Amino acid sequence: MGWCAILLALLSLNVSARADDVADFYREKTMRILVGVSPGGEYDVHARLIARHIGRHIPGSPTVVVQNVPGAGGLVMVNQLYNVAPKDGSTLGLVPNGLLAQQAAGLRNVQYDAGKLQWIGSISPMVQIFGVWRAIGVAKLDETKAKEVVVGTVGRGNASYSFPMILKEFYGAKLKIVTGYRGGSDINLAMERGEVGARVTTLSSWKVTHPSWFVDGLVRILAYAGPRPKDLANIPSLEDVASTPEDRLVVRLLMSGAGLGRPLVAPPGMPTERVMAIHAAFLKTMTDPAFIRDASASNVEIDPVSRDDMQRIVGEALGTRAAVRERAVRLLE
After folding, report:
1. Is 333 helix (H, G, I), strand (E, B) or coil?
2. What is the DSSP string of 219-263?
3. Under 8 Å CB-to-CB from 53, ≥6 apart: which residues?
4. Which residues share a beta bridge with 177?
């Protein structure tokens, strides 16, 4: 019994020492959360929401700031986080959830291994939608087979590009895809100006950034991917337009990131005790009354995705068989 008491005391001291080490590291430090898009979009909203609250739950209470690193639909930021950013715990990333499909399909310029990223959590999963501006006169998905619709995207290699490509290849939609926008807010502005008639985004994104569009009926949702929400009961899912089992596997791989939401990750090599401290702080943030009030004010729904669920999704996507990956890459590039 004496040895047990001594062992428990030593373990307690070890845990306490590690906690003190984490606090010593973060005290008076500034932590960065990198975001791969320009300010104003939903990823940016989620990153800034987390940044405003998570610091007080991290031992040492660091200051947390958001740094936008736009480029290639977030690929530039992920590569930077994985290969260049400090691995000491001072830099995290809110990464694009399309990174799984990009890697599984062997996309060019992928310089990371999502299986080695250290997954923290996300505020909620997402429902991706194909939405059109009412003024273009298209009300149903079937109508895109007869009338060309211009779709704005940030670039190849992500859902904003692969979603309309799936509609073109598997459904016969007449879509002209325009790449090169810096982020979702720029595409939204292009829709208002009449430069493009449609885009892929998330249902929650427009509810957060442009709730009046739904109230005034300025946008129409023609298709979606992810879990079916109640308010899209009569809208076809992207898997519905895939006519064969093989096509549906391609859709599932390309849309695998929906379950991740907007994931917060740490780079590989970050000390385990700091990763776990950030993870614990994230969980505390999700139930923090101040965070919940702030999220509600921004129309952000809270339905946290766990670290374990993220790792399961990552494993399934990266384990997709080669024949499916080869077909997927043609819809990403």
Report:
1. coil
2. EEEEEEESSPPGGGTTSPBGGGG--SHHHHHHHHHHTGGGGG-S-
3. 285, 288, 290, 291, 294
4. 151
Instruction: Please name the helix (run of DSSP H) or strand (run of DSSP E) that holds residue 99, with its range, or none.
Output: helix 99-104
CA distance 175 to 1: 74
Residue type (1 letter), 310: M
Q: For residue 26, what is the enclosing H or E element?
A: helix 2-26
Q: Can 2-125+259-330 and 128-257 be said to share one CATH topology?
A: yes
Check residue 170 and give its pLDDT.
Answer: 93
Fold of 2-125+259-330: D-Maltodextrin-Binding Protein; domain 2 (3.40.190)
Find the length of the chain: 333
- Digit-coded pLDDT (tens) for 4-24: 455 444 444 444 445 679 999
Instruction: Indicate the helix (H) or strand (E) that contains 103.
Output: helix 99-104
At 6, the amino acid letter reads: I
Query: What tens digit of pLDDT does each residue of 70-125 get?
Result: 988 789 999 999 999 999 999 999 999 989 998 998 888 899 999 999 999 999 99
CATH architecture of 128-257: 3-Layer(aba) Sandwich (3.40)
Residue 193 corresponds to which tokens in the numbers above? 């100006």
Domain residue limits, the chain:
2-125+259-330, 128-257
DSSP string computed for 82-132: HHTS-SSSSEEEE--TTHHHHHHTT-TT----GGGSEEEEBS----EEEEE
- pTM of the predicted model as reported, rounded to 2 decimal places: 0.81
